[in-house]
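Q: I'm building a small set of examples for a reading group on sequence design. Run inverse folding on the following structure and report the sequence directly after it, with nothing in between.
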């Protein structure tokens, strides 16, 4: 099995000369685009695997390290040996975003780390990351550079707003009523991929491999949006537990882990919690049914 690549992904040899591989270079560009749109190493690797794209010759298996190596490979901006695949400005943005994400995790208080993975921009749906400044109030910024939402929010205020949401949930446990939607939900990722696929069809100059990767990625996101009966059962159990016990230190962690889909941050809306049934509770307003 060919696990080792002698030539970086995106390139091939023709007449003893390194050139950009049409199929693989299109995938490299897509990986950078996905990362700068707020996707994680894990979500990108899963998308690549679902698309049937091979990183190694004998398998379609992908992992986070493969994506990370591509995003960190400076050869893609071109040199005397390797032709350019990625614009230097785009490469720099990806490296800066990676550094920001590392700081976001390493400097974060332990009790907030589980919440980071669910903290999301209320405007575009991309992940939000912390930008701690020594002696200043922590800022939260959207990973989607084209959105650019940023707001000041200290750790203490963040905790207080989330506590407020759970106080409202304790008063209205029906927020966890499970339901089966009449039609499939259109998530931000599904909408983004639909728009990207439409734009690619309109351009008409994309490679078949790139189009195939978009189609498979869209199908994967649409599949993830289907209702999960196991989660519906979990919601019923949690709702009954809140109705009987209220929200306690013992069950709050379970509720956060199993019932909370996203923590939404917005300059106007403040801190809100979206549950896996699609219902939202805001620290600024009464629970929305």
């Amino acid at each position: 099995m060919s696990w080792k690549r002698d030539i970086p992904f995106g390139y091939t040899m023709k007449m003893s000369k390194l050139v950009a591989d049409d199929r693989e270079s299109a995938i490299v560009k897509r990986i950078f685009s996905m990362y700068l749109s707020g996707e994680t190493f894990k979500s990108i690797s899963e998308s690549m695997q679902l698309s049937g794209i091979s990183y190694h010759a004998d398998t379609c298996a992908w992992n986070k390290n493969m994506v990370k190596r591509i995003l960190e490979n400076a050869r893609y901006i071109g040199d005397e040996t390797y032709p350019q695949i990625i614009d230097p400005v785009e490469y720099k943005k990806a490296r800066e975003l990676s550094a920001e994400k590392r700081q976001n995790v390493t400097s974060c208080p332990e009790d907030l780390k589980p919440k980071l993975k669910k903290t999301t921009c209320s405007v575009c749906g991309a992940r939000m990351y912390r930008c701690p400044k020594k002696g200043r109030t922590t800022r939260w910024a959207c990973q989607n550079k084209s959105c650019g939402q940023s707001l000041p929010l200290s750790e203490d205020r963040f905790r207080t707003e989330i506590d407020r949401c759970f106080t409202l949930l304790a008063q209205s446990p029906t927020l966890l009523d499970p339901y089966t939607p009449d039609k499939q939900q259109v998530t931000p990722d599904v909408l983004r991929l639909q728009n990207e696929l439409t734009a690619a069809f309109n351009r008409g100059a994309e490679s078949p491999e790139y189009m195939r990767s978009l189609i498979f990625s869209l199908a994967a996101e649409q599949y993830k949006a289907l209702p999960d009966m196991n989660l519906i059962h979990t919601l019923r159990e949690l709702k009954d537990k809140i109705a009987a016990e209220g929200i306690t230190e013992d069950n709050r962690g379970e509720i956060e882990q199993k019932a909370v889909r996203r923590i939404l941050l917005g300059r106007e809306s403040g801190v809100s919690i979206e549950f896996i049934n699609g219902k939202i509770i805001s620290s600024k307003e009464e629970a929305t049914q």
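Residues 178 and 278 are 9 Å apart (CA to CA).
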